[in-house]
Amino acid sequence: MLRCIDIVKDYHVDNGTRRVLDNISFQVERGEKLGILGRNGAGKSTLIKIIGGVELPTAGRIEKDMSVSWPLAFGGAFQGSLSGLDNLRFICRIYNLDYKETRRYVDDFSELGRQLLDPVKTYSSGMRARLAFALSVVIEFDCYLIDEVIMVGDARFYERCRQELFVKRADRALVIVSHDMNFIKEICDRSAVIHDRKMIECSSVQEGVDLYHSL
Fold first, then answer.
1. Residue 167 in 3-state DSSP?
2. Could you point out which of 82, 124, 201, 206 has its C-alpha 20 to 30 Å from the C-alpha of 38?
3. Separation of alpha carbons 164 and 156, rounded Å
4. CA count, 13 A, side-chain hemisphere, 197
5. What positions does the domain ABC transporter occupy (predicted)?
6. pLDDT for 195-211, tens place per residue?
7. Which residues of 20-56 are buried (b: 16+ CB within 10 A; e: fewer)?
């Protein structure tokens, strides 16, 4: 289970603080697929980053008894001065993965070729996303966090991403934030909407989609 309890997030601005999330509470069981909807700036990506440990909440806490990924395709954790392979080597040490085996998978899946030898700071956003996605799926998590557009690149790469995440790992829990209503309806079995800093949990995916369109 993944449980968010009274999550608050404030950001410092010139004239004080701006609250983005206000007492957000919900839980996700193993195997559940939760779609979170909301307009631009509603705080969806911020919530995903808090769940994934990329950002800290101002108040509240996260409880979990299953492994949770970082936000898929999030490349912000890479050390820019290091090459893609050096970043890969570091992550292998952290997660106790076999470097050679993991490198073969990431090299094949990301299709970055010799660019894996270049510093990550020289990568385009699409290249960083490819590397981050490949690393995300090579490590087996119980729950995957998906922030907006994770399917980067051409149609063939898009389909490979879908196969890896939604077919091969169909038994895993997912927390998805997206503007793509068809995507949410296809993948998720629950929905919630973030509006005016609060989360509204819905009884069905369609109810969440209807509420989103009414905002």
1. helix
2. 124
3. 13
4. 12
5. 2-215
6. 999 999 999 999 999 99
7. bbbebebebeeebbbbbbbeeebbbbbbbbbbbebee
